Amino acid sequence: MAEIETALREFVMVAYKKQTYMNILYLLFSFPLGTAYFVFLVTGLSLGFGLLLVWIGIPVLVLVFLAWWEIASFERQMAIWLLGIDIPSMSLKPVNEKSILGRALYRVKSPVTWKALLFLLVKFPLGIFSLVVMAFLVSLTLGMLINPILYLVGESFASSLQEAILVSISGIFVGLASMHVLNLLAHISGSFAKRMLSGYEKQADVSLVEEMNS
Question: Contact, 147 vs 164, CB < 8 A?
């Protein structure tokens, strides 16, 4: 009985947690940002490779290359701020190079750079999926909550006012369940960001080697 009460309390308390709304905010940002990243990267890379024969493509590719690192850094920081997760630094060691070319060469060698590119490209379909799921859950919840009003204006599927009220009450539970679904989706997005926007694997390997040596 105590386990059921605890589970029910956790189910209801999702609506009172600040992190729930931070997660929803992160998911809301996913679609517009993912679209912007995809358009920028596809356009920039296509233009850069297309102009390689006249050499103009080289500085274009360098600029796009440096830009996607900065964008990925922003995404990493946003995930830390909104999702409350700890993501290790994208750089495995301090960058001492001051020239653009030197920094570019350093980042070319970093596997995080290429994982970050994949993350930014995948964020576009992930943002679309998040938007569709969120729109569906919000529409379903609101439609159930206002069902008595819909019944009074003749737009409800309920056969009686009592049934419409029961649907509306059920909408509260559907809304709470929707928050749990969005939290899960945000958790998956956060885990993906942590995997792709950090030097986690190499840092873990280094720590393991240090422990073995000690």
Answer: yes
> Has residue 204 got a pLDDT over 80?
no
Alpha-carbon distances, residue 113 vs 31, 71, 183, 199, 210 (angstroms): 22, 11, 28, 10, 25
Q: Residues 162-197: pLDDT tens digits? A: 999 999 999 999 999 999 999 999 999 999 999 999
Burial of 113 (0-12, 13-18, 19+ CB in 10 A): middle
Residue 198 · residue 87 · CB < 8 Å: yes
How many other CB atoms sit within 10 Å of the CB of residue 10?
Answer: 11
What per-residue confidence (pLDDT) applies to 95? 57
Of 137 and 209, the structure prediction assigns the larger pLDDT to 137
Query: Across residues 122-137, what is the average pLDDT?
Result: 95
Total Cβ atoms within 10 A of residue 195: 13
CA 178, CA 72: separation in Å to the nearest integer?
29
pLDDT of residue 123: 95
Q: Would you state the structure tokens that stand for residue 129, as one six-digit string?
A: 């999926």
58-68 residues labelled b (16+ CB within 10 A) or e (exposed): eebbeebbeeb
- Res 35: pLDDT: 95
- Taking CA 131 as the corner, what is the angle to CA 128 and CA 133, rounded to the nearest 5 degrees? 110
